[in-house]
Write a structure and sequence with these properties.
Strand content of chain A: 15-25%
Order of helices and strands of chain B: HHEHEHEEEHEEEHEHHHHHHHHHHHEHHH
Distance between the termini of chain B: 52 Å
Oligomer: heterodimer
Strand content of chain B: 5-15%
Order of helices and strands of chain A: EEHEEHEHE
Number of helices of chain A: 3
Low-confidence stretches of chain A: none
Largest sheet of chain A: 5 strands, mixed
Mean pLDDT of chain A: 87
Mean pLDDT of chain B: 85
Largest interface: A-B, 42 and 44 residues
Radius of gyration of chain B: 26 Å
Number of strands of chain A: 6
Helix content of chain A: 10-25%
């Protein structure tokens, strides 16, 4: 078979490409209220903005002493916090964490308590309150994941 | 011998999720092989040689020809007692310039075959046996590779022991050379009339069975393709339990005077791995069936005592399951996500052990299945309803977080002139989603959107969706009692 007789779909110099490239945006979430059937409710968002402060733990321990506590564990009795385990994930960029320079002391300590009970992926009130630079500077959303199985 | 029986009460055998009970052979018109169906299907998965042994008229040839029909194979059926070498290779003729000899092919020559049945292999002349040896063992004839050949099957009557002095003795059926017999992976004994149940007898007696072409609509072929893919994926990571069982069984049989060659131990391990995939469970019964069908001795008239084989099996099973990590093996080997969850709930001794098992699973599962597992389990694990520690939840979160919220772009090339406006993958997924609704639809859509955006290849969207839904249903009882 010669090239001229070929049935192979050669379209050289025809002015059009052999194929077109398509793209489509996919956006979907089962977190929050976006899905009509499956909703994993947002329980709360927590986060603290320490600005340029790098001694985060020391700063929080100073605030702790202002309410007469010596250990972050003591905050459990002072502030409401979710009683069951929750799914945690990083808060979206538009979330505004509480500015530690201007926010009320109670609000800062409550968020610090909850952050101390969370990792990057779970909030667990049964674990000890751990304040580290990493835990205190996270911005988290906490969801109740049980409705995923409804 | 003493140690063989000591271990019988050592430890309770590990239970496992229910085995797959779906039968494939009766649909093909093949009856009476229920007890050994897993072994037959296993040989299809491993593509190792299979030998059927049985009295005349027990359906050996019918079974193997039916398998070739159901799998749409280019099949060759040779009678070894009548075969000549030309039947296999064709007529040799020299090239005109004398540079080489070629074979003139006929419809019966073996070159294009995908499956070969060598019937009456025990009635074969010794010189032909040697040629068949290379065919069975190496997939070669005259040193030339048979590249298309996948399945090597043979059939024989029980070997003559007392030279025809009873009705059950086939005088022309000679014991196989043990070296040839050892090349077969599995030996399946066909059931005679007196061992069939009434339903099987009536099914066999139906006149329409004669000459019928086996056709199950591609069900077996599709299942085999899945099993084979899974087998090839796992062959380099054979679970310790299988290795423990195969070596222990060989040791115990040797103690009882039944020699098992090193090659045979490897064949047993291959068969166990495939059988586990076919049965969809780690099951003591399946392991026993494979061990019983892996012994070549009956082909040369040295049928082992059933009680010895059973004792060797029990000792090997107990030894393999005495490992504290046996549940992890069962967890990793279980093909259904819901089955994995059940093992985790029932068997996992601690959150740390659960975290380790989850990490292993995420590392070795196929990406679409690992994603499905993480997606289905992560909410329950994060809510503290499963024995998985913080490390394990973090591992799950790394995979599942991206699935719970998807925002990305898919791109595809559409050939000029083509009508389709969607990528093929999206069309496949849309077909699955069109059949479900409510929260199930939301979960499935979320998962598949992630796979599309993250370019995770989904082998079987429909089966994976069902798998996820089964897992969610199971966990619902844990999370929302």
């Amino acid at each position: 078979m010669t090239l001229g007789q070929s049935s192979y779909p050669l379209r050289t110099n025809s002015g059009a490409p052999m194929s077109r490239r398509h793209s489509e945006r996919l956006s979907s979430s089962v977190l929050g209220e976006r899905d009509p059937f499956l909703k994993i409710p947002l329980v709360l968002q927590v986060g603290l903005d320490f600005g340029s402060c790098t001694a985060v733990r020391g700063f929080m321990e100073d605030l702790l002493s202002e309410v007469g506590c010596t250990e972050p564990e003591e905050l459990r009795d002072l502030f409401d916090h979710p009683g069951g385990r929750l799914l945690a994930r990083a808060a979206p960029v538009q979330f505004r964490p509480k500015d530690v320079r201007t926010a009320p002391l109670e609000a800062i300590l409550r968020d610090a308590l909850i952050l101390g009970l969370a990792t990057a992926s779970i909030y667990d009130p049964a674990r000890p309150v751990l304040w580290t630079n990493a835990s205190l500077t996270r911005c988290l959303e906490l969801y109740d994941p049980r409705s995923f199985y409804q | 011998m003493t140690s063989l029986f000591k271990k019988r009460t050592a430890k309770p055998a590990q239970s496992a999720p229910a085995e797959r009970v779906k039968r494939y052979l009766p649909v093909l018109g093949v009856y009476g092989f229920d007890a050994v169906e897993t072994a037959i299907l296993t040989s299809l998965v491993t593509e190792d040689p299979l030998l059927l042994i049985g009295k005349s008229g027990t359906g050996k040839t019918y079974l193997l020809n039916s398998l070739s029909e159901a799998l749409a194979l280019e099949h060759r059926h040779y009678n070894a007692s009548l075969i000549s070498f030309d039947d296999l290779v064709g007529f040799p003729y020299p090239e005109p310039d004398g540079s080489a000899v070629r074979f003139l092919e006929t419809p019966a020559t073996v070159w294009p075959a995908q499956s070969v049945l060598i019937d009456e292999i025990s009635r074969c002349k010794p010189e032909h046996q040697n040629r068949l040896f290379a065919l069975i063992h190496e997939r070669r004839i005259q040193g030339i590779a048979l590249d298309k050949l996948r399945f090597r099957w043979a059939a024989m009557n029980p070997p003559s022991i007392d030279q025809g002095s009873s009705d059950d003795d086939y005088i022309g059926s000679e014991p196989l050379d043990p070296a040839l017999a050892d090349r077969f992976s599995l030996f399946v004994t066909a059931t005679d009339w007196d061992q069939l149940d009434e339903e099987q007898r009536r099914a066999i007696a139906r006149p329409s069975g004669e000459g019928r072409i086996a056709d199950d609509g591609g069900v077996l072929a599709e299942a085999l393709s899945e099993w084979r893919t899974s087998f090839c994926a796992r062959i380099d990571h054979c679970p310790e339990l299988i290795l423990d069982y195969a070596t222990s069984a060989a040791n115990n049989l040797l103690l009882a005077g039944i020699r098992i060659s090193p090659r045979r131990v490897r064949l047993i391990a291959r068969s166990l791995l495939a059988a586990e995939i076919v049965a969809a469970a780690v099951s003591e019964r399946v392991f026993l069936t494979i061990l019983q069908c892996s012994l070549p001795h009956q082909t040369y008239g040295h049928t082992p005592d059933k009680a010895i084989v059973l004792a060797a099996h029990r000792a090997a099973w107990d030894a393999a399951n005495s490992n504290e990590q046996a549940w992890v093996h069962a967890f990793l080997a279980e093909p259904r996500i819901a089955g994995k969850f059940q093992i985790l709930i029932d068997k996992c001794p601690s959150p740390d052990a659960g975290s380790q098992a989850v990490a292993q699973l995420l590392a070795q599962e196929r990406p679409d299945r690992a994603a499905a597992f993480a997606f289905a389990i992560y909410p329950a694990a994060s809510a503290g309803h499963l024995p998985i520690g913080s490390e394990g939840v973090n591992d799950l979160a790394r995979v599942a977080s991206a699935i719970l919220e998807v925002d990305g772009e898919i791109t595809w090339a559409q050939p000029a002139g083509a009508a389709a406006a969607q990528p093929e993958e999206m069309t496949r997924i849309a077909r699955v989603l069109s059949k479900i609704d409510g929260a199930r639809l939301s979960r499935a859509r979320q998962f598949f959107y992630h796979c599309l955006v993250a370019r995770v290849e989904i082998k079987n969207p429909s089966a994976l969706e069902v798998d996820i839904d089964d897992a969610v249903t199971l966990l619902r009882a844990q999370v929302l009692p």
